[in-house]
Amino acid sequence: MRILIIALTLAATLVPHVANAGPVTGSVRTLTRPGTPPSSAIVYAEPLDAAPSRKSGSFTLTQKDKTFRPHILAVPIGSTVEFPNDDTIFHNVFSLSGPQPFDLGLYRAGDSRAKAFAQAGEYRVFCNIHPQMTALILVVATPYVARPAPDGRFALDLPPGRYRLTAISQRAAPVSGEVIATASTVDAPVLTLDESAWIDARHKNKFGQDYSAAAYKR
Questions:
Q1: Which domains are present in the chain?
Q2: DSSP secondary structure string, 145-200?
Q3: pLDDT given for residue 51 in this prediction
Q4: Whole-prediction pTM value?
């Protein structure tokens, strides 16, 4: 028994110790036109010195009150997104953007459809019946994702290393900055999103045509 304890103790001293990083904290600042509140944002971190770990999962983008909830969603490559219809009416979720455009077809209240995302990209999501419904799905090559608080602050627990932080919203182009995660808390540079030039332009339906005038009143 004594020999076994000594052997285990010696083995423990020979195993390399991997330090856990402290949280990387930062903030997202959003520039908007006067009187226009900022839209929701997402921040994600991509390792620059190592291959990102693959941690796909299951996520949900709900349809409720003719609105997608949340308005913006980030998921790792290989993840599946469920689109439950929690309204009392029909919906038809589709996207014409990204490397894998999709159309989930028409389905009734209480039903749900799912979509697996195998390629990274930005997917603008709409309903073919209700043009006011819009969302953004980001499929990213990293599991490190954060949703900033209302004041713009965010925190990410990252293994030690160098990362590219990217912030994006529905109304602004992505902005990035680099940060090095260490064993203690690190403050990331402020990420500034510019939504001041955003225009609420009407999009096309899944057939590439304009919605009818009646669709905007439904």
A1: 19-53+143-199 (2.60.40.1120), 54-141 (2.60.40.420)
A2: EE---TTSEEEEE--SEEEEEEEEETTEEEEEEEEEE-SS-EEPPPEEEE-TT---
A3: 83
A4: 0.87
